[in-house]
Amino acid sequence: MADEVKATNITWHHADVVRADREKQNGHKAVVLWFTGLSGSGKSTLAHAVENALFDRGCRTYVLDGDNIRHGLNKNLGFSPADREENIRRIGEVSKLFCDAGVIALTAFISPYRADRDKAREISADSFIEIYVKCALDVCEQRDPKGLYVKARAGLIPEFTGISAPYEEPENAELVIDTGVDSLEESAAKVLAYLEGRGVFLSA
User: I want to staple 98 with a disulfide (CB 3.0 to 4.6 A). Which of 20, 33, 103, 144 is the partner?
Assistant: First the structure.
Protein backbone atom coordinates (compact mmCIF):
# COMPACT_ATOMS: atom_id res chain seq x y z
CA MET A 1 0.00 0.00 0.00
CA ALA A 2 1.29 3.46 -0.95
CA ASP A 3 0.52 5.04 2.45
CA GLU A 4 2.01 2.24 4.52
CA VAL A 5 5.03 3.32 6.57
CA LYS A 6 7.52 0.46 6.66
CA ALA A 7 10.50 2.30 8.16
CA THR A 8 10.97 2.06 11.92
CA ASN A 9 12.93 4.04 14.50
CA ILE A 10 12.66 7.29 12.54
CA THR A 11 12.21 10.78 13.98
CA TRP A 12 11.44 14.02 12.14
CA HIS A 13 14.39 16.42 12.34
CA HIS A 14 13.36 20.07 12.57
CA ALA A 15 15.55 22.53 10.69
CA ASP A 16 16.68 25.93 11.94
CA VAL A 17 16.01 27.54 8.55
CA VAL A 18 12.31 27.22 7.81
CA ARG A 19 10.14 27.81 4.76
CA ALA A 20 9.14 31.32 5.81
CA ASP A 21 12.81 32.30 5.98
CA ARG A 22 13.38 31.04 2.45
CA GLU A 23 10.27 32.77 1.13
CA LYS A 24 11.40 36.08 2.64
CA GLN A 25 14.82 35.71 1.06
CA ASN A 26 13.33 34.73 -2.31
CA GLY A 27 10.77 37.52 -2.32
CA HIS A 28 7.85 35.24 -3.07
CA LYS A 29 5.72 32.56 -1.47
CA ALA A 30 6.23 28.92 -2.34
CA VAL A 31 3.35 27.22 -4.11
CA VAL A 32 2.62 24.15 -6.20
CA LEU A 33 1.18 24.91 -9.64
CA TRP A 34 -0.42 21.61 -10.63
CA PHE A 35 -1.08 21.61 -14.39
CA THR A 36 -3.43 18.76 -15.35
CA GLY A 37 -5.02 17.85 -18.68
CA LEU A 38 -4.98 15.50 -21.63
CA SER A 39 -1.85 14.62 -23.54
CA GLY A 40 -1.34 17.36 -26.11
CA SER A 41 -3.34 19.94 -24.15
CA GLY A 42 -0.21 22.04 -23.64
CA LYS A 43 0.57 21.36 -19.96
CA SER A 44 4.35 21.24 -20.32
CA THR A 45 4.45 24.09 -22.81
CA LEU A 46 2.40 26.31 -20.50
CA ALA A 47 4.30 25.27 -17.38
CA HIS A 48 7.60 26.23 -19.00
CA ALA A 49 6.20 29.51 -20.32
CA VAL A 50 5.05 30.40 -16.81
CA GLU A 51 8.40 29.32 -15.38
CA ASN A 52 10.25 31.52 -17.87
CA ALA A 53 8.14 34.52 -16.83
CA LEU A 54 8.64 33.76 -13.13
CA PHE A 55 12.37 33.27 -13.61
CA ASP A 56 12.58 36.65 -15.33
CA ARG A 57 11.00 38.12 -12.20
CA GLY A 58 13.74 36.57 -10.09
CA CYS A 59 11.60 33.76 -8.66
CA ARG A 60 12.98 30.40 -7.59
CA THR A 61 11.22 27.80 -9.75
CA TYR A 62 11.36 24.23 -10.99
CA VAL A 63 9.21 22.28 -13.46
CA LEU A 64 8.44 18.66 -12.64
CA ASP A 65 7.47 17.19 -16.02
CA GLY A 66 5.64 13.89 -16.33
CA ASP A 67 7.89 12.32 -18.96
CA ASN A 68 11.09 13.58 -17.34
CA ILE A 69 10.13 12.17 -13.95
CA ARG A 70 9.49 8.77 -15.53
CA HIS A 71 13.11 8.70 -16.70
CA GLY A 72 14.30 8.70 -13.11
CA LEU A 73 12.27 8.85 -9.91
CA ASN A 74 9.28 7.02 -11.39
CA LYS A 75 10.98 4.89 -14.04
CA ASN A 76 9.68 1.74 -12.32
CA LEU A 77 6.02 2.74 -12.81
CA GLY A 78 3.71 1.97 -15.72
CA PHE A 79 0.29 3.37 -16.60
CA SER A 80 -2.10 1.10 -14.74
CA PRO A 81 -4.45 2.87 -12.31
CA ALA A 82 -2.31 1.67 -9.39
CA ASP A 83 0.91 2.90 -10.97
CA ARG A 84 -0.67 6.22 -11.91
CA GLU A 85 -1.77 6.64 -8.30
CA GLU A 86 1.74 6.00 -7.02
CA ASN A 87 3.21 8.26 -9.70
CA ILE A 88 1.08 11.17 -8.51
CA ARG A 89 1.64 10.38 -4.83
CA ARG A 90 5.40 10.61 -5.28
CA ILE A 91 5.14 13.86 -7.19
CA GLY A 92 2.84 15.26 -4.52
CA GLU A 93 5.48 14.52 -1.89
CA VAL A 94 8.32 15.92 -4.01
CA SER A 95 6.30 19.07 -4.69
CA LYS A 96 5.83 19.54 -0.96
CA LEU A 97 9.60 19.33 -0.48
CA PHE A 98 10.11 22.00 -3.14
CA CYS A 99 7.60 24.19 -1.29
CA ASP A 100 9.48 23.68 1.95
CA ALA A 101 12.60 24.80 0.08
CA GLY A 102 10.81 28.03 -0.81
CA VAL A 103 10.50 27.15 -4.49
CA ILE A 104 7.54 27.58 -6.84
CA ALA A 105 7.04 24.03 -8.14
CA LEU A 106 5.27 23.62 -11.46
CA THR A 107 4.06 20.11 -12.22
CA ALA A 108 2.93 18.98 -15.67
CA PHE A 109 1.18 15.63 -15.35
CA ILE A 110 -1.93 14.23 -16.98
CA SER A 111 -2.95 13.07 -13.48
CA PRO A 112 -6.29 11.78 -14.81
CA TYR A 113 -7.99 10.79 -11.56
CA ARG A 114 -9.62 13.31 -9.22
CA ALA A 115 -8.88 11.20 -6.16
CA ASP A 116 -5.15 11.22 -6.90
CA ARG A 117 -5.12 14.98 -7.47
CA ASP A 118 -7.10 15.47 -4.27
CA LYS A 119 -4.45 13.51 -2.37
CA ALA A 120 -1.74 15.71 -3.89
CA ARG A 121 -3.75 18.72 -2.74
CA GLU A 122 -3.94 17.30 0.79
CA ILE A 123 -0.16 16.90 0.87
CA SER A 124 0.55 20.55 0.01
CA ALA A 125 -2.64 21.94 1.58
CA ASP A 126 -3.13 25.68 0.95
CA SER A 127 -0.02 25.84 -1.24
CA PHE A 128 -1.68 23.68 -3.92
CA ILE A 129 -3.05 25.45 -7.00
CA GLU A 130 -4.80 23.20 -9.52
CA ILE A 131 -4.68 24.48 -13.10
CA TYR A 132 -6.88 22.59 -15.53
CA VAL A 133 -5.33 22.90 -18.97
CA LYS A 134 -8.54 22.31 -20.84
CA CYS A 135 -8.46 21.32 -24.49
CA ALA A 136 -10.92 19.39 -26.63
CA LEU A 137 -9.86 15.84 -27.43
CA ASP A 138 -10.01 16.43 -31.17
CA VAL A 139 -7.69 19.43 -30.84
CA CYS A 140 -5.24 17.38 -28.76
CA GLU A 141 -5.33 14.67 -31.42
CA GLN A 142 -4.70 17.21 -34.17
CA ARG A 143 -1.66 18.46 -32.30
CA ASP A 144 -0.40 15.02 -31.22
CA PRO A 145 3.17 16.34 -30.77
CA LYS A 146 4.52 12.94 -29.73
CA GLY A 147 2.46 10.82 -32.14
CA LEU A 148 0.83 9.07 -29.19
CA TYR A 149 -2.80 9.39 -30.25
CA VAL A 150 -2.08 7.72 -33.58
CA LYS A 151 -0.48 4.81 -31.75
CA ALA A 152 -3.30 4.69 -29.18
CA ARG A 153 -5.97 4.62 -31.89
CA ALA A 154 -4.07 1.76 -33.52
CA GLY A 155 -4.12 -0.18 -30.25
CA LEU A 156 -0.37 0.12 -29.79
CA ILE A 157 -0.56 2.00 -26.47
CA PRO A 158 -2.82 0.41 -23.85
CA GLU A 159 -4.46 2.46 -21.08
CA PHE A 160 -4.01 5.73 -22.93
CA THR A 161 -5.87 8.62 -21.30
CA GLY A 162 -8.75 9.95 -23.36
CA ILE A 163 -8.82 6.90 -25.64
CA SER A 164 -8.73 3.65 -23.66
CA ALA A 165 -8.45 5.14 -20.16
CA PRO A 166 -10.56 7.87 -18.54
CA TYR A 167 -9.73 11.46 -17.72
CA GLU A 168 -11.73 12.96 -14.85
CA GLU A 169 -12.01 16.72 -15.27
CA PRO A 170 -11.34 18.85 -12.20
CA GLU A 171 -14.49 20.06 -10.50
CA ASN A 172 -13.01 22.88 -8.42
CA ALA A 173 -9.74 23.89 -10.05
CA GLU A 174 -8.35 27.28 -9.07
CA LEU A 175 -7.79 28.04 -12.75
CA VAL A 176 -9.26 26.67 -15.98
CA ILE A 177 -7.35 27.61 -19.11
CA ASP A 178 -8.60 26.53 -22.54
CA THR A 179 -5.52 26.26 -24.71
CA GLY A 180 -7.73 25.56 -27.70
CA VAL A 181 -8.98 29.14 -27.38
CA ASP A 182 -6.27 31.13 -25.60
CA SER A 183 -2.79 31.66 -27.03
CA LEU A 184 0.25 30.58 -25.04
CA GLU A 185 0.94 34.20 -24.09
CA GLU A 186 -2.65 34.73 -22.95
CA SER A 187 -2.63 31.48 -20.98
CA ALA A 188 0.63 32.30 -19.19
CA ALA A 189 -0.63 35.82 -18.43
CA LYS A 190 -3.73 34.36 -16.74
CA VAL A 191 -1.57 32.21 -14.46
CA LEU A 192 0.67 35.14 -13.55
CA ALA A 193 -2.34 37.36 -12.89
CA TYR A 194 -3.79 34.73 -10.58
CA LEU A 195 -0.52 34.48 -8.66
CA GLU A 196 -0.38 38.26 -8.38
CA GLY A 197 -3.92 38.38 -7.02
CA ARG A 198 -3.17 35.60 -4.57
CA GLY A 199 -0.26 37.54 -3.12
CA VAL A 200 2.45 35.09 -4.13
CA PHE A 201 4.85 37.92 -4.99
CA LEU A 202 6.01 39.61 -1.80
CA SER A 203 6.63 43.34 -1.71
CA ALA A 204 10.20 44.45 -1.16
Answer: 103
39 near 118, Cβ under 8 Å?
A: no
Q: Which residues pair with 63 in a beta bridge?
A: 106
pTM of the shown model: 0.90
Pairing of strands 175-178, 128-134: parallel
Other residues' Cβ atoms within 10 Å of the Cβ of residue 97: 10
Marked catalytic residue, from 111, 124, 127, 187:
111
- Along the chain (204 residues), what's the average pLDDT of each consecutive run of 10 residues? 68 84 95 96 96 96 88 86 89 95 95 94 96 94 88 90 92 96 96 96 78
Instruction: Please tell me the CATH code under which domain 19-198 is placed.
Output: 3.40.50.300
Answer left, alpha or beta for residue 84, where phi above 0 means left and psi between -120 and 50 means alpha.
alpha
